[in-house]
Design goal:
single chain; mainly alpha; SMc04008-like fold; 6 helices
Length: about 100
């Protein structure tokens, strides 16, 4: 496999993940974060950092709209639920395992 094919496959995999997360509005960011150590916001930050590395200006809000498929405030109003005390506790306990986002 050459470099161009690898990049195209990686891009396709990313698009598939983003599309899946857009459909799974029931999957709350805090639950994804607690289980996997990253969430939609992390993907947005990675996207924004990649743009910055290539000299492309992009705000966090613009990156989140790409990942969420709509402005974040709209997604939050439609789908985000208040985190339970147990979810918040798990979030704090798992912080050392959360994704590192360079360039943000």
């Amino acid at each position: 496999m050459d470099e161009n094919d690898r990049v195209e496959l990686e891009a396709a995999a990313f698009r598939g993940l983003v599309e899946h997360l857009r459909r799974r509005t029931d999957a709350q960011n805090i639950d994804i974060m607690n289980l996997a150590g990253f969430c939609r916001n992390c993907l947005s930050k990675w996207y924004m950092a990649a743009a910055k590395e290539r000299g492309i200006e992009m705000s966090y809000d613009e990156a989140r709209e790409i990942v969420y498929g709509m402005p974040f405030d709209d997604w939050k109003t439609r789908y985000q639920k208040e985190a339970s005390e147990e979810q918040k506790k798990t979030f704090e306990e798992t912080k050392p395992l959360h994704a590192t986002i360079a360039g943000h």
